[in-house]
Design a protein that fits this description.
Strand content: 25-35%
Order of helices and strands: EEEHEEEEHEEEHHEHEHEHEHEHEHHEHE
Number of helices: 12
Number of domains: 2
CATH architecture of the largest domain: Alpha-Beta Complex
CATH class of the largest domain: Alpha Beta
Distance between the termini: 24 Å
Shape: globular
């Protein structure tokens, strides 16, 4: 048996003792979890789910339904490999891209796997990484330099979201970028934009602590988008034209319209933040200014996720710079979920480890 954090229903997430995963099948590996990040999606499933979790009927691709093990931001060491796995060996540190797809539909054949009608993910539609052990498909496990702190490698999933946002937004060297939202995804967007050659990067967030974090991590400016004169200040920082590219990573009502308002004529606005509240946009203005509104969802393992791992290996971001709390598996619900999004903590990411004792902090 092993310890695991399982979603049973809305408001009902428990520490359970469950059977260990079966021996890895063809193309699979078993991983001893070192760290698993928890994010706003996990907390929303706890408070308001099921959103993505299959409840009442098994998921069409995975055959899994609640109760299931949460956790989709996974890093750990390979324990055993299944038949046909040659690229990974026991003891190897890997970061796991959690996304799953059918592999045969029109979108999968075009390598647009996150658009698969049967899209699934470890920790949301199959058992995930908030446990001692997890099985994963070997091809989605990206080997990590063993010199890298596993906690830093655990940032690969949110960083890969930012990689995809920059890829979708077609960031060019020398362009200006404004990022709305200074949470983990917004900070990752800042780091990836800097690595991608952006000349001027502005982070917009109403929380002073997040603005200070953005400045420490290389933002040229960090502004409060709720104050008068925000748009004028932003335009002054971007040559009077507005940003070449904006990234909406706040996921709050009104942020999309505000992001478009400070994007230049002919510029691009990439939507990463998720909000259940519909937005009203001035489509005439968008058309007249030939702006582009671009959706960016998740990541692809060999394009975005692998690139995120390489960026972390090169030192683009370290866990100590952004982690707000490191908690034991037993403290996930009482402490971990409560720490997600808190403005009084020094960082923006919560990590969970089965190796930390209950009540201790890693």
């Amino acid at each position: 048996m092993m310890r695991a954090i399982r979603w049973h229903g809305r408001g009902d997430v428990r520490l359970d003792h469950v059977p260990v995963p079966p021996p890895p099948g063809p193309g699979e590996v078993r991983i001893a979890v070192a760290w698993t990040g928890i994010c706003g999606t996990d907390r929303e499933e706890w408070r308001h789910g099921p959103l993505f979790i299959p409840a009442g009927a098994p998921h069409r691709l995975t055959g899994v339904q609640a109760p299931l093990i949460l956790g989709h931001e996974i890093v750990g060491h390979v324990v055993t490999v299944g038949p046909g796995v040659d690229a990974l060996v026991p003891g190897q540190l890997v970061a796991v891209d959690p996304n799953l797809s059918c592999g045969t539909c029109w979108w999968c054949v075009r390598h647009e796997v996150i658009l698969c009608p049967d899209y699934a993910a470890l920790g949301l539609s199959a058992d995930g990484g908030l446990a001692e052990l997890v099985n994963a498909q070997a091809r989605f496990c990206i080997a990590v330099d063993p010199a890298i702190d596993p906690a830093t490698a655990a940032l690969a999933e949110p960083v890969s979201v930012a990689v995809r946002a920059m890829r979708r937004g077609r960031l060019r060297i020398g362009e200006s970028v404004v990022v709305f939202g200074g949470g983990m995804i917004g900070i990752a967007a800042l780091v990836v934009a800097r690595a991608g050659g952006a000349a001027t990067i502005v982070v917009a967030d109403p929380l002073p602590g997040r603005r200070e974090l953005a400045l420490r991590l290389g933002a040229d400016a960090a502004l409060d988008p709720t104050v008068d004169g925000f748009a004028d200040t932003l335009r002054a920082l971007t040559g009077g034209r507005g940003a070449d590219m904006s990234v909406e990573a706040a996921g709050v009502p009104g942020a999309v319209a505000q992001a478009l308002g400070v994007t230049r004529r002919g510029g691009r606005c990439v939507l990463v933040g998720l909000s259940a509240t519909p937005s009203t946009l001035d489509t005439l203005r968008i058309a007249a200014l030939e702006q582009e509104l671009i959706g960016a969802m998740s990541h692809v393992w060999d394009e975005d996720f692998a690139a995120a791992v390489r960026l972390l290996e090169r030192g683009a971001l370290h866990a100590d710079q952004v982690v707000a709390a490191r908690v034991a598996l037993e403290d996930t619900v009482d402490i971990g979920f409560g720490a997600v999004g808190r403005s009084d903590l020094p960082g923006v990411k919560v990590l969970v480890s089965p190796s930390i004792r209950k009540g201790a902090r890693g």
